[in-house]
Amino acid sequence: MPRIKVLPHAQICPEGAEFEVENHSNLCESLLKNGIKIEHACDMSCACTTCHVIVRRGFDSLEEMHDVEADLLDRAWGLEPDSRLSCQVKVENEDLEVEIPKYTINHASENH
């Protein structure tokens, strides 16, 4: 089973975390099930950027992103070449190391 390593984040996961997940698991759901309270304002429907993560290791094992995800990521804070929306990531056979950006843009809660 693949392992997910979450790098430390001051508010969400100060100590970092590491856990195993089933193959083909949704990354956002896996984070939530393991106590990582990542935002997901659109209920994981690929309509916002609050679940944005940067995949530091294992990025090449992921399926290519669809155009909708790519377009949304253009609006994400702290976008990097290895950025993904965790709600759109299926964990395959390879371990992942992910970083949750320091900030997120939540248009619903910020009254944009």
Description of the structure:
This protein has 112 residues and is an alpha+beta fold. The protein has one domain (3-99): Beta-grasp domain (Ubiquitin-like (UB roll), Roll). The protein has two helices and seven strands; from the N terminus they run E-E-E-H-E-H-E-E-E. Strands 2-1-7-4-5 form a five-stranded mixed β-sheet. The protein has a two-stranded antiparallel ribbon with strand order 3-6.
Give the gist of this structure.
Helix content is 12%, strand content 22%.
Note the main attributes of this structure.
single chain; 112 residues; alpha+beta; Ubiquitin-like (UB roll); five-stranded mixed sheet; two-stranded antiparallel ribbon; 2 helices
Write the layout of secondary structure elements.
Layout: E1 3-6, E2 17-20, E3 25-26, H1 27-33, E4 52-57, H2 67-73, E5 83-85, E6 90-91, E7 96-99
Parallel strand pairs: 1-7
Antiparallel strand pairs: 1-2, 3-6, 4-5, 4-7
Using the CA coordinates, give the radius of gyration. 13 Å
Question: CATH topology, which one?
Answer: Ubiquitin-like (UB roll)
Characterize the largest beta sheet: strand count, sense, and whether it forms a barrel: 5 strands, mixed
Put simply, the count of helices is 2
Q: What's the CATH H-level homologous superfamily?
A: Beta-grasp domain
Question: Tell me, what is the CATH class?
Answer: Alpha Beta
CATH architecture: Roll
Strand content: 15-25%
Shape: globular
Biggest sheet, spatial arrangement of strands: 2-1-7-4-5
Question: How far apart are the termini?
Answer: 41 Å
Mean pLDDT: 93
Question: Which H/E pattern describes the elements?
Answer: EEEHEHEEE
Domain tally: 1
Number of strands: 7
Which class do the helix and strand fractions yield?
Answer: alpha+beta
